[in-house]
Write a structure and sequence with these properties.
The complex is a heterodimer of chains A (about 290) and B (about 270).
Chain A (H helix, E strand, L loop, with lengths): L29 E11 L5 E11 L3 E5 L6 H8 L7 E6 L14 E4 L11 H5 L1 H5 L8 H11 L15 H13 L5 E5 L7 H18 L2 E6 L2 H7 L2 E6 L4 E7 L14 H25 L1
Parallel strand pairs in A: 3-7, 3-8, 5-6, 6-7
Antiparallel strand pairs in A: 1-2, 1-4, 8-9
Chain B lengths: L8 H26 L10 H10 L1 H33 L3 H16 L2 H11 L3 H26 L3 H9 L4 H39 L8 H10 L3 H29 L5 H5 L3
Classes of the chains: A alpha/beta (about 290), B mainly alpha (about 270).
The complex binds adenosine-5'-diphosphate (ADP) and magnesium ion.
Chain lengths: ~290, ~270
């Protein structure tokens, strides 16, 4: 049974009581399926142990956990960067090879803007289109214009990255991800280095784009507030070995306006997620003793 | 906008060393006169200036030969050095196997190899050029290789994610990333090419029509024409400064749009 996402009366958060059957997203097609994935780096670090999770079409999922718990590792595996040591990773119920050739496009946003310092903003933004001809839309220039205006950088397209503030560089990085018109967006602590005002603004921007574009988003963060504000679902991870220990559904309607940040529901979810995170951190501490 | 000249950073940067130089020359001239120094031991700046003027045709001919060898060696070092770097980055194995030989070439004093090269290579100009290349090529190889490897790993991931070919990766990512390092290598290499050209000529001792500045210094020593020796020395130093300034100018021009931090690495 499909429920509207825009429920007028949000239910009270009830810790630990998630029966997936009621959630609207559960009938949708899985985009990412992580099945029993282990990742052991060459130096012996067990970055992931038995990770299991599914991300369905249109979901906004956050990965939350203490630093070093394998969030980036998991996200990179989701992007097809680096092999898994055990288990498997499926994209759209298929192997990785299919991605890119069938209109299933993923985009990745890193913690720092990762722009080419020698290229102007516009050239940076068009990079994916220059590299991957299969993902070229019919009208390249128009799609770049659109991406730039979506992040509000149209006037700065001829600037060099160093001429932009940190927040604007991050926007350029997001615009670069948008040019290919992706349907899966992977973001690794994209706003971690920004001040809170900029971060809140960009959070709202990403949410608006997510709704407008019907993306699937996996968002790595170490901020409880950010995770609760943005996501349908928060996946909590623990360290040593990196693993998934909890999952909290944020059953709140979209669009989530800044008011949501000061609502009692928001506070309730934040407490619930914080507790889960504390338990996860405690697990990690135990393991390291 | 108008500020006193003395407060302008640029003015001070030029005027201060210039002032020191003038004072030094004055002191030199005065000491030579005061101590009644013989010219064949230490000529004063005025005597050197006079020689520069009087011996100009000889000096200029030698200068052109030294400059020619220097530029030829520098050009070969750049082209060959870049090609070797491109080979090095193809695989760790190639680099691991060959790099020690590049170091070996670098650490062996060129004066020790020069006699061999002069025996093997008939044409003196080429023999000297090869010696200079042996000295000048190493900074190009090591800096360019380092630059081609020091790519932002996240950018590299991005390129991999879009399944970019190695060629595209080289053109769009590695070469631009390497440019600041490459220019750093050029600066060092240009100076070394000149040193190589001079040192090799000392060893070769070529005379006649193909005599460069080094030979002129040797010959002036034998004949005790010390002012001419100083004049030749001055020309070598000036050539080095001009080369260096040229490289700084070139790299500033090309890297103007680079991130400041990337530029600072080299200064
Ligand atoms: N390339 C690598 N080689 C070896 N160990 C790594 C590598 N990348 C990450 N690690 C280790 O794996 C663990 C998880 O790292 P990461 O996924 O970056 O965590 P997070 O993003 O949650 O902070 C950490 O202990 C980290 O030191
Ligand atoms: Mg990380």
């Amino acid at each position: 049974m499909m429920q509207s996402k825009l429920k007028s009366v949000p239910p009270k958060p009830t810790p630990g009581a998630q029966t997936g059957a009621e959630k609207p997203s559960v009938n949708r097609r899985p985009v990412l399926q992580v099945e029993g994935v282990d990742k052991v780096y060459a130096n012996g670090t067990v970055a992931l142990k038995g990770a299991d999770m599914t991300v369905r079409e249109g979901e906004f999922v956050s990965l939350l956990g203490p630093s070093g718990c394998g969030k980036s590792t998991l996200l990179r595996i989701m992007a097809g960067l680096g092999d898994v040591s055990a288990g498997q990773m499926r994209w759209w119920e298929q192997g990785y090879d299919v991605v890119g050739d069938t209109g299933r496009k993923l985009a990745f946003v890193f913690q720092n803007a990762t722009l080419m310092p020698w290229a102007r903003v516009r050239k940076n933004v068009r990079l994916p289109l220059d590299l991957d001809h299969s993902s070229r839309p019919d009208d390249v220039e128009k799609s770049i214009d659109e991406a730039l205006s979506m992040v509000g950088l149209s006037q700065f397209q001829h600037a060099f990255p160093r001429e932009l503030s940190g927040g604007m560089q991050m926007r350029a990085s997001i615009a670069r991800a948008l040019t290919t018109q992706p349907n899966l967006l992977l973001m690794d602590e994209p706003f971690g280095a920004l001040d809170e005002m900029t971060r809140n603004k960009l959070n709202d921007d990403v949410l608006a784009l997510w709704q407008a574009r019907n993306w699937t988003v996996v968002f790595v963060t170490h901020s409880v507030y950010e995770a609760v504000y943005l996501s349908n679902r928060v996946v909590v991870m623990a360290a040593r070995p990196g693993r998934i220990v909890d999952e909290i559904t944020i059953d709140q309607p979209y669009p989530r306006l800044p008011d949501f940040r000061v609502s009692t529901e928001f506070a309730g979810y934040c407490r619930q997620v914080s507790q889960a995170l504390e338990r996860a951190s405690a697990l990690g501490e135990e393991a390291s003793i | 906008m108008k500020q006193p000249l003395i407060k302008s950073e640029r003015f001070v940067q030029i005027a201060a060393p210039l002032g020191v130089g003038v004072l030094f020359l004055l002191f030199w001239e005065i000491m030579v006169i005061a101590l009644d120094m013989p010219r064949y031991i230490l000529p004063g700046p005025s005597a050197i200036g006079a020689s520069l003027f009087a011996d100009w045709p000889t000096l200029f001919r030698s200068l052109m030969i030294t400059v020619q060898i220097t530029l030829l060696a520098f050009a070969i070092s750049v082209v060959l050095g870049v090609l070797i770097s491109l080979v090095f980055i193809q695989s760790r194995w190639i680099e691991i196997s060959l790099f020690p030989y590049a170091v070996l070439m670098q650490v062996t004093p060129v004066v020790a190899i020069a006699p061999l090269i002069i025996i093997w290579v008939d044409d003196t100009t080429w023999a000297l050029t090869i010696c200079a290349v042996i000295i000048a090529i190493f900074p190009v190889i090591s800096n360019t290789t380092l630059g081609l490897r020091s790519v932002d790993p996240n950018l590299l991931s991005l390129f991999r994610m879009y399944r970019t070919s190695r060629w595209q990766e080289l053109i769009r990512l590695r070469i631009p990333s390497a440019l600041p390092y490459f220019f750093g290598g050029l600066r060092i290499s240009s100076g070394l090419a000149l040193i190589g050209a001079v040192v090799a000529e000392f060893v070769a001792g070529t005379g006649g029509a193909r005599a460069g500045l080094a030979y002129l210094i040797l010959q002036s020593g034998f004949t005790l024409r010390i002012p001419r020796m100083f004049a030749a020395l001055l020309l070598i130093a000036l050539t080095g400064i001009v080369l260096f300034a040229l490289m700084v100018w070139l790299s500033d021009r090309v890297l103007r749009n680079w991130h400041e931090s990337a530029l600072k690495v080299e200064h």
